[in-house]
Amino acid sequence: MSTVFGRRQLLRLGGATLVIAGTAGFHQPTQASTGRPAGLAELAAGTVTADLVVYGATSAGIMAAVQMRRMGRTALIVDPGGHVGGLTTGGLGYTDSGTSAAIGGLAAEFYRRVHAHYAGTPVTPTAPMRLVFEPHVAAEVFADLLTEYAVPVYLNARLTTVQRTGDRITGIVTDNGQLFTGPMFVDASYEGDLMAAAGVTYTVGREANSVYGETINGVQLRTGHQFTLPVDPYVVAGSPASGLLPGISVAPVARNGSGDELIQAYNFRMCLTRSADRIPFPRPDGYDPADYELLLRYVQAGYPGPFYTTHSVGGGKTDSNNNGAFSTDFIGANHAYPTATWAQRESIVAAHRTYQQGLMWFLANDPRLPTTVRSATAAWGLAADEFGATGGWPPQLYVREARRMISGYVLTERDCRGSGQVTDSVGLASYTMDSHNCQRVVVDGQVRNEGDVQVGVPGPYPISYRSIVPTAGQCANLLVPVCLSASHIAYGSIRMEPVFMILGQSAATAASLALAAGTSVQQVDVPALQARLRADGQLLSWPPGGEGAIVVDNAALGVTRAGTWLASSAIGGYHGIDYEHDDNTGKGVNRFRFTPTLPTAGAWTVQLRWTANANRASNVPVDITHDGGTTTTVVDQRGSGGQWVALGTYAFPAGTAGSVLIRTDATDGYVVADAARFVPA
């Protein structure tokens, strides 16, 4: 027996909306008694079951469900709100991707489908990706995927209860009384609500640098998105007794690197246009010009803008984001959000909407601002053909960070800088370590923003499978691809929509393998998981094909030095947090040895990395000690900087008998020691 679903058929189940994504002519096997897709059955009134229950209709949640369907199993999505696609369909159309070539699997397919949508061409594995798009296009591409794989999406169904037997979730109950059951679960929400309700350990806020041996976590009073002109913070300028203007913390700023419970600011990613049919910026209920007094003073001090970004996404529209010291980020207003009640969250979201709509109204209309500022802002408006249900305003708050799981592997700054110890990669991240400001403070009588960090990474780096599964014993059938295990600053790099899609696919793949083997998610055969992921186009190492590589950074334990070596980060392209050089002295005395711990004997390709400059040596001798003795080669460090340069393939024993020695004998410039890499041949 079969049935044909309409293009986007809506069914009412209690208070929730169920979207059966089907397409005319697509025949999906069904349960004879219910008319529902096979394996997705209503067991009793208000009970639905599937092999995989996904909580959160984010990009990660959609990819998890689609991957489960591709593996021949059933999946459904439950979302507490009424929006499908998360930030990808919620205004973030100018994708933060880092190294776009490191996007693989279903994520890459999504962006190829976007390209095909605009180009009117077929989707092929070699088609270009388009990472810039209008919100409604992303929504249509996701709808096509949900349609193609008949994935039901239950909207407006808020989690209230998690049912468990031992260390396994058996079902989740939503506020309309619906029960969703199954053997596997994925928490794809931005908030980590299912993870928390299931009793999984998590954290909120910024760790001190000392917790994980980091350098840019915790409090960071820096120059990014900072006031560049002096602005008085007091209600009556020059009078501390008059109190602080709105949005400024009364607490003194703590020392750099210290931890707290603050999170980076949220905003809405607006889709703006100059089109004649644009919707003028509304004046929101509760508008108070005092909320923008700081910005007025900043402008009066001489700041000319910009006040937000206007990145083009096509169709004459933008993805507009925070830019500058006082912009669309509602700094300090979101700290209670991650663990708040539903009512409290609604209030926080409403406050953010009022703040940001009020900001745009202020910039376009306040007579105290220069005419140039008002006219430039009023020339823009909300796109009339986007977000029609919410008057052109994005329905999705940009929750940049909420809960973060603490599991068997916590991704940290070292991972982002390429010095981690990940052998169980399930995907790559590559974006800058990026934290928006967390608070406004007073320093020496002037207002300052605190928390902004923008530090690049040397290249794509792996995400550990252990970081998306709870610690063994906490929950055996839950995977967490969004609120994964990472420090605050590492999460700032990982938290990009392509990475969430990548990890959603990997999570579902692991769930299917765990079902097939009858094991917990913690006991999944990682090599088998990685093999299936590679077969499905997922990239697990960088450059592709470097799986199982062993990296020895200059800051690693497997390093010995002779003579004098100075740390530096003056020239970019280094691996890890810095590199070292011989100061162009001590020739023949200064030596630097990288010693790996190789897990198996066999052939390994040896690669060396350095930063290039005209003052570098062109004749650096390098000794590779291997099974057959020692081979010497010479490298030119004036070129090929920031790359892994192959020195040959050699047989090595297991353990620490092999090494790479950089010598400085008779070299004609600065000699750099950055990192060595050993790749299984």
Describe it.
With 681 residues, the protein is an alpha+beta fold. The chain has three domains: 277 residues, 3-Layer(bba) Sandwich (FAD/NAD(P)-binding domain), CATH 3.50.50; 119 residues, no CATH class; 131 residues, Jelly Rolls (Sandwich). Strands 2-3-9-8-7-13-28 form a seven-stranded mixed β-sheet. Strand 10 and strand 11 form a beta hairpin. Helix 2 crosses helix 3. The longest helix has 24 residues. The chain is globular and about 75 Å long. It starts with a strand and ends with a strand. The N terminus is likely disordered.
Write a concise synopsis of the structure shown.
Strands 2-3-9-8-7-13-28 form a seven-stranded mixed beta sheet. Strands 5-6-12-11-10 form a five-stranded mixed beta sheet. The two termini are 52 Å apart. The chain folds into three domains: 2-202 and 460-535, FAD/NAD(P)-binding domain (3-Layer(bba) Sandwich), CATH 3.50.50; 272-390, no CATH class; 550-680, Galactose-binding domain-like (Jelly Rolls), CATH 2.60.120.260.
Key features of this structure:
alpha+beta; disordered N terminus; metal ion binding; 681 residues; FAD/NAD(P)-binding domain; 25% strand; five-stranded mixed β-sheet; globular; 3 domains; Jelly Rolls
Describe the secondary-structure layout.
Blueprint: E1 2-4, E2 9-13, E3 16-20, E4 27-29, E5 41-44, E6 47-49, E7 52-55, H1 59-70, E8 75-78, H2 105-119, H3 135-148, E9 152-155, E10 159-165, E11 168-174, E12 179-181, E13 184-187, H4 193-197, E14 202-203, H5 209-212, E15 234-236, E16 239-244, E17 272-273, H6 293-300, E18 311-314, E19 317-319, H7 342-365, H8 371-378, E20 381-382, E21 404-405, H9 413-416, E22 425-429, E23 433-435, E24 439-443, E25 446-450, E26 453-455, E27 461-464, E28 478-479, H10 488-494, H11 497-517, H12 526-535, E29 550-553, E30 559-562, E31 566-568, E32 579-581, E33 591-594, E34 602-609, E35 620-626, E36 629-635, E37 645-652, E38 659-663, E39 672-673, E40 675-680
Parallel strand pairs: 6-12, 7-8, 7-13, 8-9, 13-28
Antiparallel strand pairs: 1-4, 2-3, 3-9, 5-6, 10-11, 11-12, 14-21, 15-16, 17-20, 18-19, 22-27, 23-26, 24-25, 29-40, 30-33, 31-32, 32-39, 33-38, 34-37, 34-40, 35-36, 35-38
